[in-house]
Amino acid sequence: MVESRHQWKAWLYLSPAIILLLIFTVWPIFNTLRMAFLDGYGNMAAIGGRTFEFGIDNFVKVIDYKDFLLCLKNTAILCVATVPISTILALLIAVALNSIKPLQKTLQTIFFLPYVTNSIAIGMVFAAMFNIVGLRDGGTNAQTWGIINNAIEFFGGEPINWINAGSTYTANIFVMIVYIVWNALPFKILILLGGLQSINKQYYDAAKVDGTRKFRVLTRITVPLLSPMLAYVIITGFIGGFKEYSSIIGIFGDKMSAPGGESLNTMVGFVYDALARDRQGRACAAALILFVIILIVTLINNKFIKKHVHY
Amino acid sequence: MSKSVMSVMQERDIQKRTFMQKMFKIFGKTGTYAFLFIMALIVLFPFYWMIISSLKTLPEYRQAIPTFWPKQIIWGNYAEAFSAASLAELFTNTVIVGVASTLLSLVITVLSAFAFARLEFKGREAVFGAMLATMMIPGELFTITNYITVTNLKWTDTFQALIVPFLVSTFYIYLLRQNFMQIPNELYLAAKVDGTSDIKYLWRVMIPLALPTLISITILKMMGAWNTYIWPNLVAKNLPLITNGLRNAFTDTSGQANYPVQMAAVALVSAPLFLVFLFLRKYIMQGVSRSGIKG
């Protein structure tokens, strides 16, 4: 390290970053707290000269609000359903990929593809796949139930109204789960495969000498040695899950529901709705609640991980 | 004699066991490949469906029995999509935001990382620690105030609003600092002795050596501009980027929409991402596995 007599130089180099961070990162932290505790804060009203009293009214209003509980429910369901499914699938795929030689690189690339997509754009493809096009039993113009329903009918099932008018909440959520899992796989596979490739081969050789069964090798060697990566993937999965928003817009549009159906709005969506309606106090309160929930879930995960992860 | 019988039996036993093991191994391998192929098909199917649907006529798309290859390839869907979603304007907007924010962000990141990695100054550890601490706070908390800041600056519907708030990424500064620290300090001292300026040293030595990291940052930043939806939707409704424009051009969920054209638009928006991925796969996968962030 160079003992610099020109300390100002370092500060000069850092100045663009520091100035921008002060305006767009540090100030927001304080301002969010301030706005959350000013009853009914709105920026336009504040500019108009209105003053706001200090209080916890925003939090009370947010929690009282029926929509908020709905958003919380939707977020929680999506989170709890998608994280385990995508983690287990990603683990199986990563282990399978790690055990083969030919085609490994090609398959690895294919499994990474969903990552380099636009979640809104591919959401529209999923919507097209699940969509019923036109009214099926009207007119001579043959119309389709959508490729997913075609596949279900091919295997002898009954077609389901997934996302169109009159579809059920369960069907909507199912479509979302499928899409979110599909979207979450590449990152998890990448991290887990990286972890697998760094496990010392000697453990497996020892298991081979002992004639250990494949499944036992998976549960007794692979998973424990992979546990730091698994923990990482699960925690980031939960954090991402609690921030789910644009994937729903991709499939259902910015109304975030099937026509006439129950809203699939999430916590993040709630924050942005309040924000766009100049109810910043309420938006801040909701964002802080979201932050605390994420914090608690992460802490619980950490506690669980401390017990089960072998570093 | 009994000894030889024993050994023959043992040998048979061993043969039998190795045969069974071989069979297990073959079954195992076949099963593994079968599983991987099925999963790969599921992963690829939406892309395949997007492409073939984008080339069909509307009546063919609507057939009750789907076709898996268009009977008649309609390239015109792409032209129609290009004008229906005014993609030209959206592409231009997005490229401007992407290029400007990537370049400025690279300059800021390199300068900060250099200061943290090579210069000694009071409060260095404290400032660096504070920067890292901001990474733990979810972005939604910043968005609310930044929305107000941008509105009060009268930046609504301007390029500044889309570029400036996201120029500094503490994570990229951290990543690049780690990379710079691996470069031996002797090189810097030698440069100082020769009277080389900091900027020249940065340009000639540090940047070439840290190029892979810089490329990863560039790609992720560009992909970010391409995929961002929430922020432009809040502050620049009249200056839409590609994702916003795409979603808003096709909002019909009644089932009557012209899906082939819609799929053509989606394919056009997805194509640049795939091209980048095709050529720079290594950097993207490296960058992602180290940073663990999307976009």
Plain-language structure description:
The complex is a heterodimer of chains A (311) and B (295). Helix content of chain A is 70%, strand content 0%. By secondary structure, chain A is mainly α. Chain A has a single domain, classed as Orthogonal Bundle (MetI-like fold). Chain B has 295 residues and is mainly α. Chain B starts with a helix and ends with a helix. Chain B folds into two domains: 2-54; 81-291, MetI-like (MetI-like fold, Orthogonal Bundle). Helix content of chain B is 76%, strand content 0%. Chain B has 14 helices and no strands.
Concise structural overview:
The complex is a heterodimer of chains A (311) and B (295). Chain A has helices at residues 7-36, 43-47, 57-64, 66-98, 104-112, 119-130, 147-154, 169-197, 201-209, 214-242, 246-252, 267-276, 280-308.
Summarize model confidence as the mean pLDDT of chain B.
Answer: 86
Coarse structural class of chain A: mainly alpha
The radius of gyration computed from the alpha-carbon positions of chain B, rounded to a whole number of angstroms, is 28 Å
- SSE string of chain B, helices as H and strands as E: HHHHHHHHHHHHHH
In CATH, the architecture of chain A is Orthogonal Bundle
The amount of beta strand of chain B, in percent, is under 5%
Say what oligomer this is: heterodimer
CATH homologous group name of chain A: MetI-like
Strand tally of chain B, please?
Answer: 0
Largest sheet of chain B: none
User: Rg of chain A, please?
Assistant: 25 Å
Number of domains of chain A: 1
Uncertain spans of chain B, ≥5 residues at pLDDT below 50? none
**Fraction of residues in H or I helices of chain B:** over 70%
Largest sheet of chain A: none
CATH topology description of chain A: MetI-like fold
Q: Can you write the helix and strand succession of chain A as a string?
A: HHHHHHHHHHHHH
Largest interface: A-B, 106 and 101 residues
